## 1
Amino acid sequence: MPDLSLATEDWQAIALTARLAAVTLLILFAIGLPLAWWLARTHSRLGSLVSALVAVPLVLPPTVLGFYLLVLLGPQGPVGRLTESLGIGLLPFTFPGLVVASTLFSLPFVVQPLQASFAAVSERMLEVAATLRAGPLDTFWHVVLPLSRPGLLSAAVLGFAHTLGEFGVVLMIGGNIPGRTQVLSIAIYNRVEAFEYAHAHLLAGCLLVFSFIALLALQFINRAVSTTPAMLRGGA
Amino acid sequence: MRRFLCCLAALLMISSVRADDVLVAVAANFTAPMKEIAASFEQATGHRARLAFGSTGKLYAQIRNGAPFSVLLAADADTPEMLERLGLAVPDSRRTYAIGRLALWSPDPARVDLSGRILADPDLERLALANPKLAPYGRAAEQTLKALGLWETLKPRLVLAESISQSFQFVASGNVPAGFVALSQIMRDGRLLSGSAWHVPAYMHAPLTQDLVLLRPGADSAAAAALVKFMGSPQARRVIDDYGYRVPP
């Protein structure tokens, strides 16, 4: 019977993964909220272009994205030269590098649900708020966001869970360094390569159960929200 | 907002590396033996080896793009040589640490005979091997089949894996009845773990030489030098041999 307790290395990987997903989610929302709002309201052609760009990680193989990020952020890449000249240093193989990669990779999972729910907020609601002398920011915080609760929740859960499960990009850009860039999915890969299947099953099981619970919770919450009257959600 | 930024900064800064740590990039096929060797290295020298695993090709791309690895244990001899030519490795630090051995394996104890005659069996509906274009073990498998004059016959029945690990998984999971794997994947302490296997004779393919090289970030590190030296120690050589590799003379 193999020893099935989690090793320091596993705990490190779990903590690192949780930290990565949390930081990434914060940044995703900081970028995603204004971006999704603009995409939901704009009629310009630029909007379609940006929408398509945001969706690219959905169809691009993770290793491809990881490889290009590695080259772009590396010492010979334009972004790498920029970060070095700014005194930040090089991003690949560091935690901030993982955050940058995960943010790009999970962006569509946050922007798309936000955009859909922002688009569903009726123009009339915004006009009513404006006649009540609410400024644009005020309207956004007190009218749009509360009306978009299901979208916000979906975006948060999908963004977080997707970062947890990411493998190809973080392996390429992070370099599988224990305690620094070795996240849970990579720890599982290492266990498989080391023939420690019982351990790999244990870690993979944790990830599976956690992801499933998160998605299940999302279903329940969405159902609870959708029973509130449609008018309050701004549906036409 | 300021609190948020402070939290973010704190989260980003946590990381620690000990002064006498050595960061080693290890070819995925050498994962299990290297974990054992790293443990005895720490006991013997007090230095700690932190291991980062990946395919040799991926590690090469990472080293070219500034990865902080001090030592590379590659799955071939070409990659360390290329890194040296690019000026990314310390000159004259290359050394062979293990020589891989190819095996034809099936989890079924009665399927593979000791001389590989199963390869000529028309009932062998599928055969797994690593992609010869991507993996040294795949190239060796191709050379073996060509040496046996069976390459053209078997070609339509081949299942190509992206690495020797995947080839092993195809066979171990029962999806393919037999396949070429690394002996290190199916042997422990000099014994076959399960199933049946044919040890492919070394003369049938080009040698699967695995070289290590000291990389530039490790040029002045005592711990990195100690690790390179330790790879040739009797302790390390015994582990390498136990896992089914040949040790260099």
## 2
Amino acid sequence: MTRRTASALALLATTAALLTACTSEKDQDDSTAPKPGTLRILASSELSDMTAVFDRVRKDTGVTIRPTYMGTLDAVDLLAKGKADGAYDALWLSSDDYLRLRPDAAKKVLSETPVMSSPVAIGVKQATVQALGWKPKEVTWSQIEQAVQDGKLTYGMTDPARSNSGFSTLVSVASALSGAQSALTDADVAKATPRLKKFFKGQKLTSGSSGWLASAYKRRGNVDALLNYESVLKGIPGLTVIRPKDGVVTADYPLSSLTASDARTREDVRKVTEDLRTTTVQQLITDTTHRRPVVASVAPASGLDTSRRRELPFPGSRSVADGLLDSYENELRRPSRTVYVLDTSGSMKGDRLAALKKSLTDLTGDFHEREEVTLMAFGSDVKSVRRHVVDPKDPKTGLDAIRRDTEALDADGNTAIYTSLEKAYDHLGAGRDTFTSIVLMTDGENTAGAKAGDFDDFYRRLTGTRRDTPVFPIVFGDSDRSELAHIADLTGGRLFDAQKGSLDGAFEEIRGYQ
Amino acid sequence: MAAVVAGRQGEDKGTATKTVRGVIGSEKADFFADPDVVKALAAKGFTVKAEASGSWAMDGLDLKGYDFTFPSSKAPADQLAAKYHVQEPLPRPFYSPLVVLAHHNAVDVLAANGLATLDGKSRGTLKMGAYLDAARHNRTWQQLKGASGHGELTGTLYIASTDPETSNSGALYLAAASYVANGGKVAAGKADIDRTAPLLHQLVSVQGAQQSSTDAVFRDFISGAGNPPVLVYESQVASLLAEQQPSSDTDDLVVLYPDTTVNSDHTVVPLDANGRALGELLSTDPTLRKLAVRHGFRPQGDAGEFVAATKDRTAYLNQKLTGVRQAPVPTSAVLHEMARRARG
């Protein structure tokens, strides 16, 4: 956690430096500098669908909302360490439930005002709903579990460590399947582990953000359902949105002012909060984002079912919440299997190679048990292929080996991007029961081996799980953005930027997609 | 009303407006945001800038530059008054009893199992003794007769309340429960705290993460989230009913008055002369008292104002608090210790 937050900060700091270095106009986009009339808000990424509401708030109050999106855990960590003091004017997470479990972070918050709500739900393809014979209003978590076990239902969800929607989903599933009658305890989690393991076998898609989850779902076509907030699922065509009958966890989006901010800033937060609670803005919120209003005079947008659901309690202690996350990553979820295709051509010599080594070494702190990591270094051709598994019985050996191999990387030769990618797909071979992906880090254009067109042909001939394996390219150094964007598009991956941000920030962000 | 309009900011150039800054309990945010309240205050030369905070959390804030705090009860107010050497008595403009808000499904089950009685369709009494007994035995909804038809009525029976360590209503919940559990005596020392601790811990721990403000609990309820029954202030319910035309939402709302409850005495802690003047004004100004009633509060000293103003809502509100016993609140040291052990 420490390291991840540090890289997020590094990323912000780099952005600021770059912008300052460019033109003075761009200074206005500098999200780290305080500016009267602008609220720098540390926000959950789910709020990126609120643009119309932010515009309206600016019209009403003259206050501009400038969100910086971050996962709940990272945001809470930032607050707890005092690093949000002076860097942000307000906090706006999907929920402050996790925040409250961290007294050192909670004391940084002055007031919390819930603005809207959305429960965790499952969005299921209409054909699947029919095939399962489900009545949407009657479906329970146990039925969902049964369908998964019978091999009749697969689903995607966001990474609980990086996305609030993933975390809330995990809590909903664990609470429901543990049979706990009140807030989860460590014992409940332990007891539910075998059932949860089976349930998460059905998870075929993972993502660091709700947006990419939706596009990956559409592209794959063979995943039956998505678990996420109702508001997100309502925005995806073709899904029947079901709030399981035996209970959900609901996000209430509290806009929170911070004790470290000055009175003028807090006055702006108050103005914005008040405006968000007006009937006009509440109506706009429910109409444009499918969230539920928190004022009684505004009805939820049509299509939001208002029948009651039990609210599953969110864990009351940090040890339970962190323990649940820990077992999800190391035990419950399908493990990930990744080939890191690493450019070690001549141009990487010096600072670039040093940055790569540092990023990879840092990343070993975040690899989970059961995870398979292959380092594939390339120049004019693939230079070495080193496969490592983090063995739950002895995680240190695998992680040490990754660090040793990283340290041994050496820069020389040309840049054979496509040949190396093809070899990465060949290395992965036929699918196993894992989240499989390829990370491509290069600082230049393709100068050797197969051409772009060759790789296109190669990829189109792939079948089965190999066809479903995305490439996550990182734009770094002098690499060709459009070339890498094409690879991401072709394979259903996503482009990450280490030119604007930092290299370790990019590697870290990709973790959410593995 | 003419006087109020004349006093609107910007029109009445003769009155110098004082800007007064305060930290208030979240349940009073709507009152201070009401344009009519803003006008009434302006007519008397005040512009109030209010920020919300948990009543018990105010103690941890840096209050430099503020003119007053306005916590939701006497105990945190006294503590703040002592800390800032504020002269007693403190202005206590209005009060509101704690009530339990629920839907018909839940209340019908509670009534069928002897945990509540109904005085009508939308108003009733929560039997604290019976309810605490159920909590002590970890009763689930499924174990209560009549619950099986309602999918949302599963899991441990509890009333959702706020974090008693930061928020007033959560702390007052413990005050009321401990009074009942302690045989109708206010908990006074270590022995009383020890005796009531297991039950209070039970009431709190089953809830998991708790909201830090009563407003949040209430909003969750309105938006259909959260776990009803919920513990809120009567003022929040009264104010909701005043704004709302009768609808399916208000139709499915039942207000239960615990047979032993605690009043929340909204108390101004003036930090300077302006804060004191504002506190006095809120207590004495007839327009502001009337507006307080509009927001569901009961002004101190005259029950008639509230009764007259809420006569259209008697189906929900127990205007004269008939059959409701007021439990005294333990000292703030005892209450803090209770809250700490209930959470721990």
